Structures are given as structure tokens and as C-alpha cells.
Amino acid sequence: MADTLIITLAQLNQKVGDLAANAAAMLAVRERAEGSDLIVYPEMQLIGYPPEDLILKPALIERAAIALEALAAATADGGPAMLVGSVFVRDGALHNGVALLDQGKVAAVRFKVELPNYGTFDEKRYFLPGPLPEPVPFKGAMLGLPICEDIWHAPVCRHLAEQGAEIFICINGSPYEIDKDELRIEGVAKRRAIDTGIPLVFVNRVGGQDEVVFDGASFVVGPEGALWAQLPDWEEAVVDTVWQKVPAASGSRWRCQPGGVAELAEHPEDIYCAMVLALRDYVNTNRFPGVVLGLSGGIDSAICAAIAVDALGAERVWCVMMPSAYTSAESLEDAEGCAKMLGVRLDTIPIVPAVDAFGAMLAPTFEGRSPDLTEENLQSRIRGTTLMALSNKFGPMLVTTGNKSEMSVGYATIYGDMNGGYNPLKDAYKTTVFAISRWRNAARPKIGLGPDGPVMPERIITKPPSAELRPDQKDSDSLPDYAVLDGILLGLVEHEKSVDQLVADGFDHATVARIERLLNVAEYKRRQAPPGVKLGMRNFGRDRRYPITHGFRTG
């Protein structure tokens, strides 16, 4: 029985399905954790989260059990115990759970009760809920082990408190969303701690996994709601917390000595960091040597180039300017200026010869028809083919640069500017693109590898957006002002409002009805879009899953 415990919080990245690498990372932390009593790792740390349908492979389940036993055996040396999240089989059913590994064996296992099945989560597809868990005794402390979603609902923590839990240790795979760090602490963790009178440890994973990104930002809150410790966001961190059993009115309580409180990224740096980390992990984990992207002189491609440089370093980013007959001298200058500010390679490959060749090839078939959107899209598709050729020949992944506003209404060319392996802006509305571009020109992200100071000419931010696919073209020729468009899209996409509700909010009926129609008819394009990092509560793909073919309209 001890009156002091050292609990190490290991906020780590994960590689889904790479059990050997994940186990090695945990053991590496343990080797450095001299004096620690217990090391806590994030949810599903052994197999990676979310595993999706990998979890249906019997071989993965079998190997996870073997790897967990090997980790348990490592604790026979008398060093720190470990709390390790993994998948478990009981009575033929799969469970999301956590194991206490101590003294060479699996000392205890507890299962997740509340299985999220909304947004990015599909846990009811894979797991059965466990029973309400009992506390786990460990070196004189009774540990309550709720898992992620378990603390978002009161019953699990209340049950643990009634059964004598003295410290809640909650392992998490909690993806980033805008303003979610405040919701976790103020809206959830403090409520559970105050409600039960028990301190709560929240350990979250960090890093990108396909379309979701995890921000870390682990913390400890006391029973009065005080923030006892705060780990940084957007990077791995291993922090010791010191706990002491102190006298209290009703016997004794465990309290954590106040620790460091890291400053979390404010808005919009948090959005920018999400884009950087998601792209970095996607490129590196999938073993691409770098990225290539079209640099048009416009704001979307400029901020994507900056994100890529901050994620990978300038030496791994290749930009290509592909001027057409309609490309302005201003765009050429702005692309060159952006490339110089970022320190990246910039090649110029004119597409005029290819446009002329396609024109000649199609002329007999198109005879008698005036040029229209077809010829505009052809330019975009030539650019997409050119960039894919560079990707195929030299190996870098193609980054695509369309924003959520454009993707929402189909203002993007399938097999053209939608070509690519990953899109950092997929869940960023155009107004968000402007906001992060202004921010990045004035600041540098905490996890960035790019330069201090501006990353694009100011003119890129201030000039009217244009696809430059016909003479004097402006986005405003086809779309409402982006402030108006994004307001309508927030209502339609994020909040599922009807046309009438948005009209009641002050928007023009004809405009809203047109945008709703465009949103619906562009669904087939979005199904063929590359993955991109989730930022808000309703991204296209993992969150918003609409049928391509349907006849429902709200106005």
C-alpha cells in the first residue's frame, strides 16, 4: 500500500494495424519511465484507432492477443505497470477494452460500455458493449477505467464511484473538431469529476489517420473542476503526474500535484495544425517521398503549398504552374512569389499545346456547337493529367486543392482539379481558407517546418478568386459572395436546415434553393473525391453520407 503514485501519461501516435511498431513505441516509453508506477496509453494503442474493418480479420485479433501477452511479460521486471488499450474476445464477441499489465501478467481487463455510432464512429458495427465496470485495485488505489465515450454519459462514472473508484483514468481516441478541446474539459470531464467528487485523467492519442486527426491535448482535472495538468496539442508527449493520498473529511483522497499546463493552439492555428499533421502522417505513413501540386497563383493552391511545406519541409514539396491562354501575368507573378517565399521547387508546364491538340481532335465532333463549360473543364482535366503524370513518373503524391465551398456546389472538375491523393482543404470552407491564409502570413504554426514570416504575396489573399478558364472569369460570376455561400452551406450541411429555415435566417429564397440543388446534384463528384482531413462536425465522407440518387428537396 502506497501513499504516493507516479502515473505517466503517454500521449502517442499510432499506426493502425502495425502491432509491432505500436508495441515497440510503448516499450520505448516504459524504458525511459524510471520511477513510474503506471504508464497510461491512449485508446486502442496496440492496434491503432480507428481500425475500421481490419477488426474483422481473425488474424489481427489473434496477433493482438499474442502481442498483449508479450507486453504483459515485459512487466515481470518489476518496473512500471501499463494500461494498454486493445481489442478483446469474450464468449465469441469483440470488445473495445483496456488491460492492466503488471508483474508479468494481464492483471485486469475492462470493456467499453458506451459505443459511439455517430459521425466518424461505427463501433456498434464491430463491438458489443461491456458490462458496467468495477474498479481495479492498484498499489493502494482503486482505479476507475472508463473508455472514451464512457465519460460522455454519466452512468459509467457514477457506477464506478459507487463501487469505490478513487481515480478515473480514461483512455481516448478522440478526434479533433473545432472547439472540441474546450468541450472535452468543460463540457464533459469536469462534469464527471464534480458530479462524483473523483479526479479524472484524460489521455488522448495524437496524429493523423486517413480523414481524421487526433490533437492529443491530454489533461487531468480535479474533483472541484480545477485543471491539474494539461499536455500540449498536436505533438507526442510523455508526462509524469505525481499523486498523493491525503486526509479528507470522509477518510482520504488521491490528489495530483499541480503540473505543467501547456498552452493549446487558438483558432485558427488549431485548424491549420490539423491540416499540417493530417497531411504529414498520411504522406509519411504511406511512404511517399513528398508531394506535388499545381500552384495557380490563387489562394487555395497557395495555402495548400504552405501546409505541405509546414508538414514535410520545402525540399519535399514540388509546385507546378500550368498556364493556359487565360492565365494572367498577375497569376504567374503570384505563383512565383509564393514559391520563393516557401523555398520550394517551381516548374512551369504550359498546357496550351495540349488544349490545342484536344481542340483539333474534337473539332469534327463538336462542329456547330459553341464553346462552353466543356472547354473550361478540358483545361482542368489536362492539368490534372499533367500532375498525375509527374506523380507516376517521379513518385510524389498529388495534393489536390479544392475547398469545401467548391466541393459542396460542384464548382470543381472531376478528373481535373479533383485529382489527387489527399486534400488538406476538403473540410475547409472558402472563408476558412481566407482566415488561415491571413493567419499563416502573420504567424508560424507550433508544429510547422516552414519559414517564419509570410508564405504568399498579400495580393493572393486580396484579389477576387478566379478559375481563369475563360476571359475575365471570376468565381462571383457563378456563385454568391463566399460569405453568403458559406453561411448557406453551414446551414444546409452542418445543421441540416431546410430552405425555409434559412430564408427565415435572412437568406434569399431563390439563392438558397439554387445552392441546395447544386449541393444535391454534386454528390456523385464528392464520392470520387480524394480523402481529406475532417475539421468540423459534418465532413463529406465520414460524417455526411447521402445517397447519390434521391428526390428529396426542402424548397
UniProtKB/TrEMBL annotation:
Domain CN hydrolase positions: 5-248
EC category name: ligase
Spell out the PANTHER family in the cross-references.
GLUTAMINE-DEPENDENT NAD(+) SYNTHETASE, NH 3 /GLUTAMINE-DEPENDENT NAD + SYNTHETASE
**Gene Ontology annotations of biological process type:** NAD+ biosynthetic process
Name the chemical reaction catalysed here.
Answer: deamido-NAD(+) + L-glutamine + ATP + H2O = L-glutamate + AMP + diphosphate + NAD(+) + H(+)
- Which residues bind ATP per the record? 294-301, 401
Physiological role: Catalyzes the ATP-dependent amidation of deamido-NAD to form NAD. Uses L-glutamine as a nitrogen source.
Chain positions recorded as deamido-NAD(+) binding sites: 377, 406, 525
Under which name does UniProt file this protein?
Answer: Glutamine-dependent NAD(+) synthetase
Query: What keywords does the record list, in alphabetical order?
Result: ATP-binding, Ligase, NAD, Nucleotide-binding
Q: Where does this protein hold L-glutamine?
A: 118, 174, 180
Pull one GO CC term from this UniProt entry. cytoplasm
Q: Record's HAMAP family?
A: NadE_glutamine_dep (MF_02090)
What's the domain of life for this entry? Bacteria
Q: Which InterPro entries match?
A: C-N_Hydrolase (IPR003010), C-N_Hydrolase_sf (IPR036526), Gln-dep_NAD_synthase (IPR014445), NAD/GMP_synthase (IPR022310), NAD_synthase (IPR003694), Rossmann-like_a/b/a_fold (IPR014729)
Any one GO MF annotation of this record: ATP binding
Which protein family is it in? Belongs to the NAD synthetase family. In the C-terminal section; belongs to the NAD synthetase family.
Give EC number(s), comma-separated: 6.3.5.1
User: What does UniProt list as catalytic?
Assistant: 43, 112, 148
Name the residues that span the membrane.
Answer: none
